[in-house]
Amino acid sequence: MRVAMISMHTSPLEQPGIGDAGGMNVYVRNVASHLASHGVEVDVFTRATRASQGEIVEVEPGFRVINCVAGPFEGLAKESLPTQLTAFTGSVLEFAREEATRRSDVPEDACTRTGAGVYDLIHSHYWLSGQVGWLLRDLWGVPMVHTAHTWAAVKNLGLADGDTPEPESRRICEQQIVDNADRLIVNTAEEEAALTAAYDADPARIAVVPPGVDIDRFTPGSDRATERARRELGIPLRAKVIAFIGRLQRLKGPHILLRAAAELIRQHPEQNIRVVVCGGPSGTGLERPDELHDLAAELGVSGYVRFLSPRPPEELVTVYQAADMIAVPSYNESFGLVALEAQASGTPVVAARVGGLPMTVTEGETGLLVDGHDPSRWADALGRLVIDDDLRIAMGQAAPAHAARYSWDATVERMLTEYRCAGDPTCSGVDGTPRRSPAGARTD
User: Fold this and answer.
1) What's the CA gap between 187 and 122, in Å, rounded?
2) Given CA atoms 76, 28, 203, 405 in this order, what sign does their dihedral have?
3) Is 71 annotated as a binding residue?
């Protein structure tokens, strides 16, 4: 099987935590890599953002990233990317046409104008890619699978204060994708319910396939590993460390953590509390990159907060290991990979009760869930783990076993089942439900 994976607005090779790179980048890269290990050939098409990348990047056998020229390499905000959908699609078609002439296993009667016959299936990620995938599906005559990662209608229901709502134009585009995709892959049953409620999606074409976590890389380590990690990060060994890992945007709630931590530090000065914020500025709602630094100063906790730049997974694990707990105060999370990575690393999580986080975190066993985003309520939840050493340690010990239930191999095995069923109305997916392809799909 050959899969054309579309990730227009961000490359799986980009560092998560910078710009628009986040959990979706981790997801696309791991799914593509594990598909390749199962004998599937995957080409991930993304928009080129610098000339030095080259057109084709061979990540590993069976997994390539194709950098498509669509607009200027730099200076094009994500909000402007819809203007480049035609250019991007044209670049994908040009590559497929050339690939059809290069490959001996492409049928001779393959359409040389569109490159039909090169790929067996399209898997698009995010709504921009879904629009591209929809057109390619019709041109190539192959099934289209779509994973949204975030939905405009759902996101707008849980906006952070000061955040900008997603435009109606995006919701309309998502509705078209929902109506026309052969299969919609969602992370959780909660996302499935939201999709059917907000977009009138056909449940027969939805499959719940939870993401995984790299349990070989994210491990608890040891007391010595924690000591070494704290020494490398410049964190006092005896401190109680609360960490935030992710993009610095209001949607992720880092400002909630700072306000809660300030209250907690005032209430319990004897606990020697420290906060680590690891990530880069991104998205809407933060006017300046140093806005969180200013907030920490305003709250009088600058001396207790350490800001770290985004790190690759092989370095990020030390941040998880150095922390006593990870805070995930997001306003919306379709799943919550950070929470899962933290637990795999033996670190309990305090998370917002939103999206997929109630499934990712087992409340009372591997972490705590917080209703709403009131800093006082967050201070209470964080304070409970700061003060109760036995509870925090027990949660940390239980966390890796919970995380081990989610593996990328299991994710990809379920994904392959859905791939094989896409476009076949008689096929049953991973949950045994008969699937059917879109019929009479709308375009409005």
Assistant:
1) 18
2) negative
3) no
pLDDT digits (tens, 9 = 90+) for 48-82: 988 878 899 999 999 999 999 999 988 788 888 99
Class level of CATH domain 223-403: alpha beta
Tell me the pLDDT band of 380, cut-offs 50, 70 and 90: very high
In CATH, 2-212+408-421 is 3.40.50.2000: yes
180 marked among binding-site residues: no
Distances in whole angstroms, Cα of residue 417 to Cα of each of 111, 112, 406: 28, 30, 17
Asked whether residue 323 is marked as a ligand-binding residue, the answer is yes
Structure tokens at 113: 């104008």
213, 189, 220: which is closest to 404 by C-alpha?
213
Query: What is the DSSP code (8-state) at residue 288?
Result: S
pTM for this model (two decimals)? 0.85
Q: Same fold for the domain at 2-212+408-421 and the one at 223-403?
A: yes
* pLDDT at residue 91 greater than cutoff 50: yes
- Give the whole-angstrom CA distance, residue 136 versus residue 141: 8
Q: Which residues pair with 51 in a beta bridge?
A: none
The strand ranges marked E within 254-301 are 273-278
Q: Residue 252 annotated as binding?
A: yes
Query: Does 390 score more than 80 pLDDT?
Result: yes
Domain parsing of the chain, residue ranges:
2-212+408-421, 223-403
- For residues 214 and 26, the answer to whether their CB atoms sit within 8 Å is no
Mean pLDDT computed over 223-232: 83
Burial 272-296 (b: 16+ CB within 10 A, else e): ebbbbbbbbbbbbbbeeeebbeebb
Confidence of residue 286 (pLDDT cuts 50, 70, 90): low
Is 347 part of any known ligand binding site?
A: yes
Q: Which helix (H) or strand (E) holds 441?
A: none
Q: How far apart are CA 347 and CA 122, in angstroms?
A: 37
51 known ligand binder: no
Q: Say if residue 150 carries a ligand binding annotation.
A: yes
Check pLDDT > 70 for residue 137: yes
How many other CB atoms sit within 10 Å of the CB of residue 52? 6
311 belongs to an annotated ligand binding site: yes
To the nearest whole number, what is the mean pLDDT of the chain? 90
**138 vs 117: CA distance, rounded Å:** 12
% pLDDT > 70, the chain: 92
- The Cα 56–Cα 269 span in angstroms is 54
pLDDT, mean of residues 255-269: 96
Is residue 78 a known part of a binding site?
yes
